[in-house]
């Protein structure tokens, strides 16, 4: 089997969850209830996140980009991890519930744009609004927004060994489809509870070590 990697962005590649960070900095208090609803899986991701961004004025775009550049922080070892996947000829895809306008400035010099799947933000109205170009396929009805399981089904073949790297409840549906999960934070707890094959990580140096331990990567 051939390894293929699907990696989350917010809170995984970056040290912070950028949507949460943006909302804490720029949004009115109403965002908190929407965030809690998403995390408790009472509100769909696309509905909750879309409503959160609709609280923000479009004129904040440049301020938000600068804020994310300043605060996101790339997790240690990520650049080395990307280089390792290139050298090992392992396909790497970034699948993110985040937005193109703050992901692109952080990743464009590291990865080709066609390897990044995320949502699109628009600023031509008074408030920011989000479009979801990677919506759920006919096998998913969770209204995910950026549907990671659907992207995995689209890209991975039957001969691929699917590795998912993530940190949050928004990565859980993808984790259930993976052959192996490399997890931290909430996703680690969920994989523990559900008995999903996994290993924890803190840095991408840990991820490189885990990949080297996987027999499928050695093959």
What would the keywords be for this entry?
single chain; 219 residues; alpha/beta; Rossmann fold; 7-stranded mixed sheet; 11 helices; globular; amino-acid biosynthesis; HAD-SF_hydro_IB_MtnX; EC 3.1.3.87
Summarize the helices and strands and which ones pair or pack.
Layout: E1 2-7, H1 18-26, H2 31-39, H3 45-53, H4 61-71, H5 78-87, E2 92-99, H6 100-107, E3 116-122, E4 129-131, H7 148-155, E5 160-166, H8 172-177, E6 180-183, H9 185-194, E7 198-200, H10 204-213, H11 215-218
Parallel strand pairs: 1-2, 1-5, 2-3, 5-6, 6-7
Antiparallel strand pairs: 3-4
Helix pairs in contact: 1-4, 2-3, 4-6, 5-10
Describe the strand arrangement of the main beta sheet, using strand numbers: 4-3-2-1-5-6-7
Strand content: 15-25%
Number of helices: 11
Residue stretches low in confidence (pLDDT < 50, at least 5 long) are: none
Q: Taking Cα atoms only, what radius of gyration do you get, to the nearest Å? A: 17 Å
Main sheet: strands, sense, barrel: 7 strands, mixed
How many beta strands in the DSSP annotation?
Answer: 7
CATH architecture: 3-Layer(aba) Sandwich
Order of helices and strands: EHHHHHEHEEHEHEHEHH
What separation lies between the terminal Cα atoms? 8 Å
Can you tell me the number of structural domains?
A: 1
What's the CATH class label? Alpha Beta
Q: How would you classify the helix and strand content by structural class?
A: alpha/beta
Helix content: 40-55%
- Gross morphology is globular
- Roughly what is the average pLDDT, rounded to an integer? 94
Provide the CATH topology. Answer: Rossmann fold
Name the CATH superfamily assignment.
HAD superfamily/HAD-like
Keywords: Amino-acid biosynthesis, Hydrolase, Methionine biosynthesis
Pathway: Amino-acid biosynthesis; L-methionine biosynthesis via salvage pathway; L-methionine from S-methyl-5-thio-alpha-D-ribose 1-phosphate: step 4/6
Organism: Peribacillus castrilensis
Pfam families: HAD
């Amino acid at each position: 089997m051939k390894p293929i990697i699907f990696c989350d962005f917010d809170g995984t590649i970056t040290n912070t969850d950028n949507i949460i960070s943006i909302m804490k900095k720029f949004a009115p208090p109403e965002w908190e209830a929407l965030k809690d609803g998403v995390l408790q899986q009472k509100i769909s991701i696309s509905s909750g996140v879309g409503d959160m961004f609709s609280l923000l004025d479009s004129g904040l775009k440049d301020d938000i980009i600068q804020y994310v550049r300043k605060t996101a922080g790339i997790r240690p070892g990520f650049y080395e991890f990307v280089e390792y996947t290139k050298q090992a000829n392992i396909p790497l895809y970034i699948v993110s519930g985040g937005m193109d306008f703050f992901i692109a400035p952080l990743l464009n010099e590291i990865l080709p744009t066609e390897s990044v799947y995320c949502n699109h933000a628009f600023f031509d109205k008074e408030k920011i609004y989000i479009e979801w170009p990677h919506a759920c396929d006919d096998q998913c009805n969770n209204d995910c927004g950026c549907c990671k399981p659907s992207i995995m089904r689209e890209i991975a073949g039957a001969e691929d060994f699917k590795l998912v790297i993530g940190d949050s409840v928004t990565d859980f549906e993808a984790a259930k489809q993976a052959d192996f999960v490399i997890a931290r934070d909430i996703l680690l707890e969920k994989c523990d509870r559900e008995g999903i094959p996994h290993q924890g990580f803190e840095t991408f140096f840990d991820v490189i070590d885990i990949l080297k331990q996987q027999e499928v990567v050695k093959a």
